[in-house]
User: Which sequence fits this backbone?
C-alpha cells in the first residue's frame, strides 16, 4: 500500500496553528541546557513501568532526555490518529502491531530497514519470525517488536484426567474428543470450553490456522468462503451446537477465574496476562491443576496470532537518530528481561527468554513454543473493522441464526464492502 | 436580537450545514492522508445507510426504547410526584432526595452497580425473582431482555428529574380548586382527573417533549452496560454513529447518521407539538 506520497498541504495553516499550540503546551522539545528531549508515548501498564528503563537510558546517553507520556489503551488509537492529523505526533511511540499497516498507509511512520541493517543491537534473526513480520508492510519495516502477545489454551489438568486424558490436545480431532468427554462428566451443569462471543479472537485463530489467507488478491477481497475458513467456522459453531461452549459474552461471566475454578468450563483460549491472574486468583488447592498448552491445529500443532506491541518512529520527528537509539536500548536482551520483570510482558527475542525467570516458568513454556508458530493478521488498514464484523456474524451464527455457508457468504459481502475504497485507491494507483 | 441570532447561526446552523456537507462525501482515514482520496458521493451515504441492516436495527432499537421508555418514565415520575405531594406522605424531604439521587450520580458508577444487580447467577434481581419462584433471567446476555433491562435502568436513572418538575407544578395548583371540588362532592380519583391532570397539562407537554428528545439520544447506557450487544440488540442510533465516526473514521457516513437522526427527532417533535396543540384547543 503506497498511499504515502507527498503529505497534503491542506489545511496547512490550521495544522501549523495546532502544532504551534501543542509546542507551547508541551514546553518545546529543546530543554534549557541544550540537550535533546525525546517525546515517547506508551500505553497502559507499559507506560507506567517504562520510565524506569528510560532513566537508565538517559544515564548512559548524556545529551538525550526522554519524556514519557502515558496513554490509556482505550483512547490510544484515537489519540494517535488525532495527533497525526494535527501534526503533533511524538518522536516515537508504542503501537499495537495490528495498527501498523494503517499508520504506514497514512505515511505517518519512518521506515526502519536501513537503521536495522546497520544496527549491532537489533538482530532480525533473533526475533520470532511471525512477530517480526507484523511490522513489515509492502516489504518495508515500520516498527521493531517490543513485546509479544499470543493466545493459547489454559486448561484444567484434573478435569482432563477425569475424562481419561493424560495430555493436552495435539490436533482438532483429539480436542473435539476431549471437549465431548468433559461435557459428559458427571456433576453440576457445565461446559467444556469458554469462547466469549464478544471476542473475535477464538474464531480468528481457527481461521489463521488454515492454508488459505483470510483476504485474497492483496487484501482486495474477503476470502471467507474458502474451504479452509468454512472448516474453521464449522468447528467453531459445532462447539456451540453441541453445548460444549456457553453462548455467552465475557461481560456476562463476571468472574472468569471463579467459573474456571468451579469447573464451569475446562478450556479457555486467552493470553499471557492471565498467567499472573490465574496464579493470583485461583484458590491454592487448584494451583497444581491448571496448565497452558499450545493451540492444536487441524492436522497437528497449530498456529496462533502474532499480537503485541512494537516501537515506531514517526516520519515527522526531527530527532530520528535519538529515537532509534532509544529503540535499540529497549531491544537489548538484558533490558527486555528487566522489562518482563516490571511488566510481565513476554519478550519478542529468543535470547531475551534465555537466562530469564521466564525460561524456568512452567506456564510460560507453552508460550515459548507457540511463539515459533504465530501468524500476522491481514495487513490492511481496514482489518480491525473486518475483525469486528467477523465477531458480529459469528455471534449471530452461534445463536443459531446462520448456517456455515450463509455466515461465510455474509462475511465476504461485508469485507468486500469495507474494502471498496481500498480497491478504488489501488486501482487508481495502478492506472497512474 | 441580532447577537442572539448570530450566536444561533454560528453554534447551530453552521455545524448543521457542515455536517450536511460532510455527509455528502466519503471522508475517511484515506482522506486524512491526501485530499484527493476524498470523493463526493452525493446521497450515497444515505442510500447505503438505508440498505444497512444494522442501521435499521439501531433505529428499531431506539424506537423501542423511546416508545416503551418515555411513557414508563413519565408515569413513574408522575406517580412518585403525586405520592410525595399527597397530604399523608411522611418524610418528604428524605424521599425527594432519595428519588432524585440517581439523576445526579455518575452514570458509569451506577451502571457498574446495576451490572451486579442484573447478573444472571449472583445478581440480586434474579435472587428476588427466584424467591418468587421465577426462573433466573439472563438480563444483559439475552437479546430479548437486554433492551428491557436498559429501559428499566434508564427510567430508574432519570425519573427523578421529571418528578421534581411535576412536584413544582403540583405545588403551584391553587388549593381553592381542591376545596371547591370537595364541596361539590368530588372523590379522590375525580379530583385527580378534573383538577390535577388538567392543571398539569402544560407541564406534561414540556416533560414529554424533553424526555422524548432525550430518549432518542440513547447512548451512554448501552455504551457502559452492553457495548451494543448481545446480538446488537442494544445498539442505538447514536451508538451506531459513534462507532461509525470515532472508531472507524468514516466521518462522512457518521454525519449522514447524525443528520438522519436530526430529521427524525425534528419530525417527531413537530408531530408531537401539533397533536398537543389540537388536544389543548377546546
Assistant:
Amino acid at each position: 500500500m503506497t498511499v504515502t506520497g507527498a503529505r497534503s498541504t491542506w489545511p496547512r495553516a490550521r495544522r501549523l496553528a495546532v502544532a504551534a499550540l501543542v509546542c507551547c503546551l508541551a514546553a518545546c522539545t529543546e530543554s534549557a541546557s541544550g540537550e535533546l528531549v525525546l517525546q515517547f508515548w506508551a500505553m497502559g501498564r507499559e507506560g507506567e513501568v517504562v520510565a524506569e528503563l528510560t532513566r537508565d537510558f538517559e544515564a548512559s546517553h548524556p545529551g538525550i532526555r526522554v519524556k514519557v507520556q502515558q496513554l490509556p489503551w482505550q483512547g490510544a488509537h484515537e489519540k494517535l490518529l488525532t495527533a497525526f492529523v494535527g501534526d503533533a505526533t511524538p518522536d516515537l511511540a508504542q503501537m499495537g502491531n495490528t495498527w501498523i499497516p494503517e499508520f504506514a498507509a497514512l505515511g505517518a511512520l519512518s521506515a526502519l530497514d536501513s537503521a536495522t541493517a546497520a544496527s549491532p543491537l537489533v538482530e532480525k534473526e533473533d526475533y520470532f519470525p511471525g512477530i517480526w513480520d507484523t511490522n513489515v508492510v509492502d516489504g518495508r519495516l515500520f516498527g521493531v517488536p517490543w513485546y509479544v502477545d499470543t493466545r493459547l489454551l489454559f486448561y484444567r489438568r484434573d478435569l482432563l484426567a477425569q475424562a481419561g486424558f493424560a495430555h493436552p490436545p495435539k490436533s482438532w480431532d483429539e480436542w473435539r474428543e476431549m471437549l465431548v468427554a468433559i461435557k459428559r462428566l458427571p456433576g453440576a451443569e457445565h461446559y467444556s470450553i469458554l469462547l466469549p462471543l464478544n471476542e473475535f479472537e477464538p474464531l480468528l485463530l481457527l481461521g489463521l490456522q488454515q492454508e488459505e489467507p483470510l483476504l485474497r488478491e492483496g487484501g482486495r477481497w474477503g476470502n471467507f468462503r474458502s474451504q479452509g475458513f468454512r472448516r474453521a467456522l464449522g468447528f467453531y459453531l459445532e462447539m456451540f451446537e453441541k453445548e460444549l461452549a456457553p453462548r455467552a459474552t465475557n461481560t456476562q461471566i463476571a468472574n472468569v477465574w471463579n467459573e474456571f475454578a468451579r469447573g464451569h468450563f475446562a478450556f479457555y483460549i486467552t493470553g499471557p496476562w492471565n498467567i499472573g491472574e490465574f496464579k493470583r486468583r485461583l484458590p491454592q488447592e487448584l494451583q497444581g491443576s491448571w496448565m497452558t498448552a499450545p493451540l492444536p491445529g487441524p492436522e497437528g500443532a497449530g498456529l496462533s496470532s502474532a499480537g503485541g506491541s512494537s516501537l515506531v518512529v514517526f516520519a515527522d520527528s526531527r530527532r530520528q537518530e535519538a529515537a532509534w537509539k532509544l529503540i535499540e536500548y529497549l531491544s537489548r536482551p538484558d533490558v527486555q528481561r528487566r522489562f518482563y520483570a516490571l511488566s510481565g510482558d513476554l519478550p519478542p527475542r529468543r535470547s531475551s527468554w534465555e537466562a530469564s525467570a521466564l525460561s524456568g516458568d512452567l506456564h510460560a513454556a507453552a508460550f515459548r513454543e507457540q511463539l515459533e508458530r504465530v501468524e500476522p493478521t491481514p495487513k490492511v488498514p481496514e482489518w480491525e473493522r473486518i475483525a469486528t464484523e467477523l465477531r458480529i456474524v459469528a455471534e449471530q451464527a452461534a445463536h443459531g441464526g446462520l448456517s456455515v455457508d450463509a455466515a461465510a457468504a455474509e462475511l465476504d459481502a461485508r469485507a468486500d464492502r469495507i474494502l471498496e475504497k481500498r480497491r478504488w485507491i489501488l486501482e487508481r494507483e495502478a492506472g497512474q | 436580537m441580532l447577537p442572539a441570532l448570530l450566536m444561533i447561526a454560528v453554534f447551530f446552523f453552521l455545524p448543521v450545514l457542515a455536517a450536511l456537507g460532510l455527509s455528502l462525501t466519503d471522508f475517511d482515514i484515506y482522506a486524512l492522508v491526501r485530499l484527493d482520496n476524498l470523493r463526493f458521493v452525493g446521497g450515497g451515504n444515505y442510500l447505503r445507510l438505508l440498505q444497512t441492516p444494522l442501521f435499521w436495527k439501531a433505529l428499531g432499537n431506539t424506537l423501542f426504547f423511546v416508545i416503551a421508555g418515555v411513557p414508563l418514565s413519565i408515569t413513574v415520575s408522575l406517580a412518585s410526584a403525586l405520592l410525595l405531594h399527597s397530604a399523608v406522605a411522611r418524610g418528604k424531604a428524605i424521599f425527594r432526595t432519595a428519588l432524585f439521587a440517581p439523576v445526579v450520580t455518575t452514570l458509569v458508577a451506577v451502571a457498574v452497580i446495576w451490572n451486579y444487580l442484573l447478573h444472571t447467577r449472583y445478581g440480586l434481581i434474579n435472587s428476588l425473582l427466584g424467591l418468587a419462584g421465577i426462573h433466573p433471567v439472563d438480563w444483559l446476555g439475552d437479546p430479548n431482555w437486554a433492551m428491557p433491562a436498559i429501559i428499566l435502568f434508564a427510567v430508574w436513572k432519570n425519573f427523578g428529574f421529571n418528578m421534581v418538575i411535576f412536584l413544582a407544578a403540583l405545588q403551584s395548583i391553587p388549593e381553592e380548586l381542591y376545596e371547591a371540588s370537595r364541596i361539590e362532592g368530588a372523590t379522590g380519583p375525580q379530583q385527580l382527573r378534573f383538577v390535577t391532570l388538567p392543571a398539569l397539562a402544560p407541564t406534561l407537554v414540556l416533560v414529554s417533549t424533553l424526555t422524548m428528545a432525550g430518549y432518542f439520544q440513547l447512548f451512554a447506557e448501552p455504551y457502559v452496560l452492553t457495548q451494543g450487544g448481545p446480538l446488537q440488540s442494544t445498539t442505538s442510533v447514536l451508538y451506531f454513529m459513534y462507532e461509525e465516526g470515532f472508531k472507524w473514521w468514516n466521518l462522512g457516513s457518521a454525519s449522514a447518521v447524525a443528520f438522519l437522526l436530526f430529521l427524525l427527532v425534528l419530525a417527531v417533535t413537530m408531530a408531537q407539538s401539533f397533536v398537543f396543540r389540537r388536544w389543548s384547543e377546546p
User: Anything to note?
Assistant: Residues 12-149+307-370 of chain A form a domain with the D-Maltodextrin-Binding Protein; domain 2 fold (CATH 3.40.190.10). The CA atoms of residues 196 and 249 of chain A lie 5 Å apart. The mean pLDDT of chain A is 89.
